[in-house]
Amino acid sequence: MSDWLVVAAIGVGTYITRLSFVALFGRSGVPGWLAAPIRYIAPAVLAALVAPEVIAPEGALDVTSANPRFFAGAVAALVAVRTKSVAWTFVAGMGALWLLQAAL
Amino acid sequence: MRAIAPLLVGVAPFGLILGVAAAASRIGAGLGWATSPIIFGGSAQLVTIELSDAGAAAAVVVATALVVNARHLMYSAALADDFRDFSPVWRYTLPYLMTDQAFAVSITRYADVDDAGYKRWFFLGAGLALWLPWQVTTAIGAVLGAQIPTSWSLDFTIPLVFLVLMILAIRDRPGVIAAVVGGVAAVAGRTIPYKLGLMIATALGVAAGVIAEKTRR
Predict the structure, then answer these.
(1) Domain layout of chain B by residue ranges
(2) For the residues of B128-191, what is the DSSP string, one character each?
């Protein structure tokens, strides 16, 4: 139940951000002090979501060969930079992870 | 349709992966898929699935997802002038379809035309061209994902998608700095309860990006 409430709250909140200047706040535009922070939210929050999953998947810092997700993540990062493609990054990252898990 | 077609290429794999990830997570295929019509924003949906799975506090899940979607404020502000000419029905329904892609193609097209009727139909078309395939591909992913055993480590697809989105979101040096600071801080603060470390890391990353941008000028 509480999961549904969380999803509903995010749905409503997202709709409000989309509606914000189009229908709610008039035409004042985004205030200047807010424009710069909004630009850097995506890189900051996405990096914060990725880094612990790759560097410390079991909770403890692990960049040794015992942690295949670190190496698979590094391969995926290279492919992501080169191709900027969800599909290719997925193939490279999962492929590397499966190979390493099979090898260990 | 022709304007948005190139942007649809990335949608199908992302939708499939999100559906599969939802099925592999604690909230499951049903609610995981329901985020598609309710939230309709890939990154925020993935955040919801991932953080709920990781045992984050409900408030942290909601706050993080909304922070991820804060970019819609920019789109909304940029489109406000054009949407002002639409009737209230259009003005309150079209924003539901607002996405990175629909915004990008519409704002470009709006610069060339001055016909409110054309503008609203164009946005509706661009929005639905993304909405429909998104609902379908996430549903297919959710159904497929439920059949796949956990030994396939499909939970790893979530950080992989975040990784690509991060690369796409980095446009300049301050962006790189925001990502590095956010990532390092998140690793350092990973044991803070309820995933609050994520919010702190994001705030530090954003601050670093803003400072980097200011000092560059």
Answers:
(1) 5-169, 170-217
(2) HHHHHHHHHHHHHHHHHHTTS-GGG-GGGHHHHHHHHHHHHH--SHHHHHHHHHHHHHHHHTTT
Cα of B147 to nearest chain A Cα, Å: 18
Torsion from C-alpha of A64, B49, B143, A12, nearest 10 degrees = -160
Tokens at residue B6, please? Answer: 């190139």
Note the pLDDT tens digit of each residue in B126-176.
999 999 999 999 999 999 988 888 778 888 888 898 899 899 889 999 999
Q: Which of residues 22-61 of B touch A (CB under 8 A)?
A: 27, 31, 34-35, 38-41, 43-44, 47-48, 50, 52, 58, 61
Q: For an interface test with A, give the residue of B52, B164, B177 to mutate (most A CBs within 10 A).
A: B164
This model's pTM is above 0.95: no
Q: Cα–Cα–Cα angle for A32, A36, A40, nearest 5°?
A: 155
ipTM associated with this complex: 0.88
